[in-house]
Amino acid sequence: MLLAAVALALSSLATAGPSHSERAAIARALVALEAEWIGVYASHDLAPLERLIADDFVGTLADGTMRGKRAHIESYAADFEALASVTSAEVVVHVFTADTAVVTGLYTATLRDPKGAAPGRFRYTDTWLKRSGRWRCVATHENALPIDAR
What we know:
By secondary structure, the chain is an alpha+beta fold. Helix content is 39%, strand content 42%. A 6-stranded mixed beta sheet has the order 2-1-6-5-4-3. It is globular, with a radius of gyration of 19 Å.
């Protein structure tokens, strides 16, 4: 009976997941990585995306288009000319294990338009895995929101 209780206690420790402080550290790290990602729009430097996005990445866009890492990164270069600004808000990190987390948030992109700035709002979900000690985004999904959605 004692052996069964010890085995049960050990198995629950193995599945307990990260501690509160570990979860907080993971959240801080991923918020920083998300900020680095969104900063690509201001810097026009694609190098961070090579490091942040996993080779087996899949992105699902608001229009239903799906693309891999290379196409996703290449799309940023085209966006640089069209976008006046991109900001992110409401970023929440959902930690599942020490190497698995999902980040949700809202980003607003303001397009350059001859008739004036044209804003777009999108909810996003990024799935992150820690591989070989480094966090990589393996999937993203975005949904377009009405401009007046809050």
